Amino acid sequence: MIETVKHSTSVAEKARINPRSGVFAWFARGRPTKPGETYGVPGQGDTMWLSVVSILFLLFVWWAITALGLVKPLFVPSPQAIVAKFVDVWQNGFTNTSFLEHVAVSTARVFGAFLLACAVGIPLGLAMGMSPVMRGLFDPPIEFYRPIPPLAYLPLMIIWFGIGETSKVLLIFLSVFAPVALGARAGVRSAAIEQIHAAYSFGASRWQVMRHVILPSALPEILTAMRVGVGFGWTTLVAAEMVAATKGLGYMVLSASQFLQTPTVIMGIIVIAAIAYAFDLLMRWIERKVIPWKGKM
Amino acid sequence: MGLNIKSASVVFPAAEGRPPVEALRGIDLAIAEGDFVVALGASGCGKSTLLNLIAGFLAPSSGEILLDGRPVTGPGADRSVVFQKHALLPWLNVIENVAFGLKMQGVAEAKRLAIAEDFVKLLGLDGFQKSPVYRLSGGMQQRVGIARALTCDPKVLLMDEPLGALDALTREKAQELILRIWNDTGKSVFFITHSVEEALFMGTKLIVMSPRPGRISHRFDLPFSRRVLAGEPARQIKASPEFIRLREEVLGIIFADEEEAA
């Protein structure tokens, strides 16, 4: 009898010492899934409400810090000040240019460069995927310039192409071009060899296989690359509008920062982020419409 | 006439410290019009290499492959292929997939859809013309693949383990369906499988292949598919003593090859 009690105590003690029990084990162990989910698929589950909570929490912390006067408004203006600044710029413009014109100018630069990069980068990427000659010729220059920060070659752009629109659009173009071209190149590998062989066995020519099998298979990768690419475009916008710009969101942020107008800086940043996010949502919607089959076969 | 393979060999050159591999040696095979030739063998015996040779994806190192007396120089619609899986185009619906081969051959849209419609019905896919192929079951996807290859009106239909990914019940139904279509269309078929039972049941001729080097080690003429088409129930044939005796004989050959390898 005594032996038994002793025994069970020692098991309980072991369990307490064992790191595989308690809170750690609760997090670490696999749990059965709910109906409709697949056991073991990483990261499944709805994130909508957590995202809302996350944003509200950050806004609250921001508001609390400013409302308690912990930081001077010069460094961190209150959320209300940002909204007020937005309304002010919306109504009165910024440096004699209306808000919408700033937005339009920047959007035109980014999307102009983006469309140009797609028009050149996607065909070139596909050609690099299809032909070892093209890959051999174009891989070194693209891989060489790709990791260089646009700010580093901005002076060269200005020396070579002047301070007009050309150098600005070209700078953004270069930042979008590499990811788009490399995405298209990788996409060429998406078609299953069975799909390609089947098409040839039905009498397709090399060109037809390219057009009707390889290109459609590459679409998911191309669209993903376009999403990544346009993100790089927005990232480069402020750099592009650093020199000799009188309009644009990047210009607005930079010149406001020179006059320590922190609310305008933050407002401009949020506007840039909002436009980029809206475009990403549009791209995701296009993905669902154009390639509903993505990842299904 | 038909397809003639004359002492074809394939040697893959040495690479990365491996010696050259003799994938096929001295293959002689004739596939006459209306033949259903089944290739069976342990893995690595060169079945798929042989199919690639006939399809024109691979050129023989020596020997020749003649179709109706003309040498095969590359892939073409007279030898369309059905693969085990991954060969359908998910951005096209069922009827577009079936009509795909004809599109590659430049057949006008109205005509190719009309032809495709016939084969969709022949394969029992009526009502699914507009369905996305990725929503279909494995068995139906495979029927789309077969319909698509048939629209090309090939002289020889090449099938690379077409039923290998199907569950047992679907597979037995598909076997009979393929036999019926083979009988109706009068096509020659070259069919690869891992299943001895399937091979005996479907073929008019069976070649058993052995590895290292890949070669045809045994040939059998088979009566069973004719009996199915004459109306005898499939399970009755597969359970008959002569079927079982032959099945064990062929299994014995393949197991001997496997043991030799191990």
Tell me the name of the CATH class of the largest domain in chain B: Alpha Beta
Which fold does the CATH topology of chain A refer to?
Answer: MetI-like fold
Kindly state the percentage of residues in helix of chain A.
Answer: over 70%
- The share of residues in helices of chain B is 25-40%
**CATH-wise, what's the superfamily of the largest domain in chain B?**
P-loop containing nucleotide triphosphate hydrolases
Sheet with most strands of chain B: 6 strands, mixed
Largest sheet of chain A: none
* CA-based shape of chain B: globular
- The count of β-strands of chain A is 0
Give a written overview of the molecule:
- Chain B: GO terms for molecular function: ATP binding; ATP hydrolysis activity.
- Chain B: Residues 5-236 form the ABC transporter domain.
- Chain B: It is an enzyme of class 3 (hydrolase).
- The complex is a heterodimer of chains A (297) and B (262).
- Chain A has 297 residues and is mainly alpha-helical.
- Helices cover 74% and strands 0% of the residues of chain A.
- In chain A, helix 9 packs across helix 10 (206-240) and helix 10 packs parallel to helix 11 (249-258).
- The radius of gyration of chain A is 27 Å and the shape is flat.
- Chain B is of the alpha/beta class and 262 residues long.
- Chain B folds into 2 domains: 2-78 and 165-261, Rossmann fold (3-Layer(aba) Sandwich), CATH 3.40.50; 87-153, no CATH class.
- In chain B, the strands form 2 sheets. Chain B has a 6-stranded mixed beta sheet with strand order 6-7-8-3-9-10, sandwiched between helices.
- In chain B, helix 6 (168-185) links the parallel strand 7 (156-160) and strand 8.
- Classes of the chains: A mainly alpha (297), B alpha/beta (262).
- Chain A binds chain B through residues 192, 194-195, 197-205, 208, 212-213, 216, 219, 291-293, 296-297, and chain B through 55-57, 74-77, 79-81, 83-91, 100-101, 103-105, 132-134, 145, 148-149, 152, 158.
